[in-house]
């Protein structure tokens, strides 16, 4: 016990003034997240704008919280929403149940469902937190076309699936833009 | 509630409403109701990195009578429900409830007989915050959205009726967009 001990404590406080502030200025600096953070979902598109979702319901089956509802529908020659036979006619995710585990993304056979970094989801009623297909679908990039429309890329299905991204560039889809989540692509 | 019910409606009352709501939203003391893992994120939000005190929530209150906002963080069991209601009833008006995390909001992945399927079965909820658990930024976002709602609250029955008739609704803008640096 020295006579300066009570003053020493103030020294620590004074020294803190010259240290870097630990606080993250959240709303002003945007919404920081790790590149592969599990935010909200996104339903991706093929490079010509057709939906990748084929309405198989594997995501709904994989969901441990039973947050996903899918109803498949049949594509016809007049109204084609996705390549192949079936498409997701109704797609809903209840964000009040979703725990962001990503099992649905793992289950998706066409890589239609991925997650993006957006997480500012809070709302004041339960109805608005059930996101439907319109909310979840990826935005149309330049060169993409709002379905329903026929498969636009190449002569046959081989062209469509294998050379699709190259063929899409001729239609004006930007080279570095992908049809998937941008951060996912960056990590790869 | 009191004197403001008898005042005539006009410019004075509209300005008073703004000032009162501004004061309310900028000194909203939270009552902790940490029940599970969300409580860990809620405590982190009060710590130095996220610093809830920036928004006038300096003191997490363990006394409901000194609290304005109940943050229900975690799953509410049937056994806990009456306790939660009692804490809510002990809070002085005006009071708000924030359901933090999917369990408090809707029961989340615990769809069983032990867990209340959404805390809105017991108390009126003003803000639902999904996430399991929501990260501290999400809690800050929910609180800022609640602040926007509080700022729009009508001060008396007449103004509440006018607002009802106009159909005005507080817009839920993501905080990182609303408060982005210009």
Automatic annotation (TrEMBL), chain A:
<dbReference type="InterPro" id="IPR010226">
    <property type="entry name" value="NADH_quinone_OxRdtase_chainI"/>
</dbReference>
<feature type="binding site">
    <location>
        <position position="98"/>
    </location>
    <ligand>
        <name>[4Fe-4S] cluster 2</name>
    </ligand>
</feature>
<feature type="binding site">
    <location>
        <position position="63"/>
    </location>
    <ligand>
        <name>[4Fe-4S] cluster 2</name>
    </ligand>
</feature>
<feature type="domain" description="4Fe-4S ferredoxin-type">
    <location>
        <begin position="89"/>
        <end position="118"/>
    </location>
</feature>
<keyword id="KW-1003">Cell membrane</keyword>
<dbReference type="InterPro" id="IPR017900">
    <property type="entry name" value="4Fe4S_Fe_S_CS"/>
</dbReference>
<feature type="binding site">
    <location>
        <position position="59"/>
    </location>
    <ligand>
        <name>[4Fe-4S] cluster 1</name>
    </ligand>
</feature>
<keyword id="KW-1278">Translocase</keyword>
<comment type="similarity">
    <text>Belongs to the complex I 23 kDa subunit family.</text>
</comment>
<dbReference type="GO" id="GO:0005886">
    <property type="term" value="C:plasma membrane"/>
</dbReference>
<keyword id="KW-0520">NAD</keyword>
<feature type="region of interest" description="Disordered">
    <location>
        <begin position="163"/>
        <end position="188"/>
    </location>
</feature>
<feature type="binding site">
    <location>
        <position position="108"/>
    </location>
    <ligand>
        <name>[4Fe-4S] cluster 1</name>
    </ligand>
</feature>
<keyword id="KW-0411">Iron-sulfur</keyword>
<feature type="binding site">
    <location>
        <position position="101"/>
    </location>
    <ligand>
        <name>[4Fe-4S] cluster 2</name>
    </ligand>
</feature>
<dbReference type="GO" id="GO:0048038">
    <property type="term" value="F:quinone binding"/>
</dbReference>
<comment type="function">
    <text>NDH-1 shuttles electrons from NADH, via FMN and iron-sulfur (Fe-S) centers, to quinones in the respiratory chain. The immediate electron acceptor for the enzyme in this species is believed to be ubiquinone. Couples the redox reaction to proton translocation (for every two electrons transferred, four hydrogen ions are translocated across the cytoplasmic membrane), and thus conserves the redox energy in a proton gradient.</text>
</comment>
<feature type="binding site">
    <location>
        <position position="56"/>
    </location>
    <ligand>
        <name>[4Fe-4S] cluster 1</name>
    </ligand>
</feature>
<dbReference type="Pfam" id="PF12838">
    <property type="entry name" value="Fer4_7"/>
</dbReference>
<feature type="compositionally biased region" description="Basic and acidic residues">
    <location>
        <begin position="167"/>
        <end position="188"/>
    </location>
</feature>
<comment type="subunit">
    <text>NDH-1 is composed of 14 different subunits. Subunits NuoA, H, J, K, L, M, N constitute the membrane sector of the complex.</text>
</comment>
<feature type="binding site">
    <location>
        <position position="53"/>
    </location>
    <ligand>
        <name>[4Fe-4S] cluster 1</name>
    </ligand>
</feature>
Automatic annotation (TrEMBL), chain B:
<dbReference type="Pfam" id="PF01058">
    <property type="entry name" value="Oxidored_q6"/>
</dbReference>
<dbReference type="InterPro" id="IPR006137">
    <property type="entry name" value="NADH_UbQ_OxRdtase-like_20kDa"/>
</dbReference>
<dbReference type="GO" id="GO:0050136">
    <property type="term" value="F:NADH dehydrogenase (quinone) (non-electrogenic) activity"/>
</dbReference>
<dbReference type="GO" id="GO:0009060">
    <property type="term" value="P:aerobic respiration"/>
</dbReference>
<feature type="region of interest" description="Disordered">
    <location>
        <begin position="163"/>
        <end position="182"/>
    </location>
</feature>
<keyword id="KW-0520">NAD</keyword>
<feature type="binding site">
    <location>
        <position position="103"/>
    </location>
    <ligand>
        <name>[4Fe-4S] cluster</name>
    </ligand>
</feature>
<comment type="function">
    <text>NDH-1 shuttles electrons from NADH, via FMN and iron-sulfur (Fe-S) centers, to quinones in the respiratory chain. The immediate electron acceptor for the enzyme in this species is believed to be a menaquinone. Couples the redox reaction to proton translocation (for every two electrons transferred, four hydrogen ions are translocated across the cytoplasmic membrane), and thus conserves the redox energy in a proton gradient.</text>
</comment>
<feature type="binding site">
    <location>
        <position position="38"/>
    </location>
    <ligand>
        <name>[4Fe-4S] cluster</name>
    </ligand>
</feature>
<dbReference type="GO" id="GO:0005506">
    <property type="term" value="F:iron ion binding"/>
</dbReference>
<keyword id="KW-0408">Iron</keyword>
<keyword id="KW-0874">Quinone</keyword>
<feature type="domain" description="NADH:ubiquinone oxidoreductase-like 20kDa subunit">
    <location>
        <begin position="37"/>
        <end position="146"/>
    </location>
</feature>
<keyword id="KW-0813">Transport</keyword>
<keyword id="KW-0472">Membrane</keyword>
<dbReference type="GO" id="GO:0045271">
    <property type="term" value="C:respiratory chain complex I"/>
</dbReference>
<protein>
    <recommendedName>
        <fullName>NADH-quinone oxidoreductase subunit B</fullName>
        <ecNumber>7.1.1.-</ecNumber>
    </recommendedName>
</protein>
<dbReference type="GO" id="GO:0005886">
    <property type="term" value="C:plasma membrane"/>
</dbReference>
<keyword id="KW-0411">Iron-sulfur</keyword>
<keyword id="KW-0479">Metal-binding</keyword>
<comment type="similarity">
    <text>Belongs to the complex I 20 kDa subunit family.</text>
</comment>
<feature type="binding site">
    <location>
        <position position="37"/>
    </location>
    <ligand>
        <name>[4Fe-4S] cluster</name>
    </ligand>
</feature>
């Amino acid at each position: 016990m020295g006579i300066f001990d009570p003053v020493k404590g103030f020294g620590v406080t004074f020294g803190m003034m010259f240290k870097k502030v630990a606080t993250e200025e959240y709303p002003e600096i945007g919404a920081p997240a790790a590149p592969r953070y599990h935010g909200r979902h996104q339903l991706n598109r093929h490079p010509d704008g057709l939906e990748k979702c084929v309405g198989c319901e594997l995501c709904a089956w994989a969901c441990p919280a039973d947050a996903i509802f899918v109803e498949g529908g049949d594509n016809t020659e007049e109204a084609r929403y996705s390549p192949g036979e079936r498409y997701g006619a109704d797609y809903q995710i209840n964000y009040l149940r979703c725990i962001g585990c990503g099992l649905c993304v793992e289950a998706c056979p066409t890589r239609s469902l991925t997650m993006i970094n957006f997480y500012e989801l809070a709302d004041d009623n339960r109805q608005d937190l059930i996101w439907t297909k319109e909310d979840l679908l990826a935005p149309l990039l330049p060169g993409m076309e709002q379905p329903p429309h026929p498969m636009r890329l190449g002569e046959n299905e081989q062209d469509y699936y294998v050379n699709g991204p190259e063929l899409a560039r001729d239609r004006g889809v930007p080279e570095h833009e992908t049809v998937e989540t941008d951060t996912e692509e960056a990590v790869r | 509630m009191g004197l403001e019910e008898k005042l005539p409606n006009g410019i004075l009352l509209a300005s008073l409403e703004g000032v009162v709501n501004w004061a309310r939203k900028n000194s909203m003391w939270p009552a902790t109701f940490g029940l599970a893992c969300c409580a860990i994120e809620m405590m982190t939000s009060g710590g130095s990195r996220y610093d809830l005190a920036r928004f006038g929530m300096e003191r997490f209150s363990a006394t409901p009578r000194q609290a304005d906002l109940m943050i229900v963080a975690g799953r509410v069991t049937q056994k806990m429900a009456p306790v939660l209601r009692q804490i809510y009833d002990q809070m002085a008006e005006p009071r708000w409830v924030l359901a933090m995390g999917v369990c408090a909001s809707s029961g989340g992945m615990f769809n069983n007989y032990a867990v209340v399927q959404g805390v809105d079965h017991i108390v009126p909820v003003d803000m639902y915050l999904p996430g399991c658990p929501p990260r501290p930024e999400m809690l800050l976002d929910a609180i800022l959205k609640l602040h926007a709602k509080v700022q729009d609250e009508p001060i008396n029955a007449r103004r509440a009726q006018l607002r009802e008739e106009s159909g005005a609704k507080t817009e839920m803008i993501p905080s990182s967009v609303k408060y982005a640096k210009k």
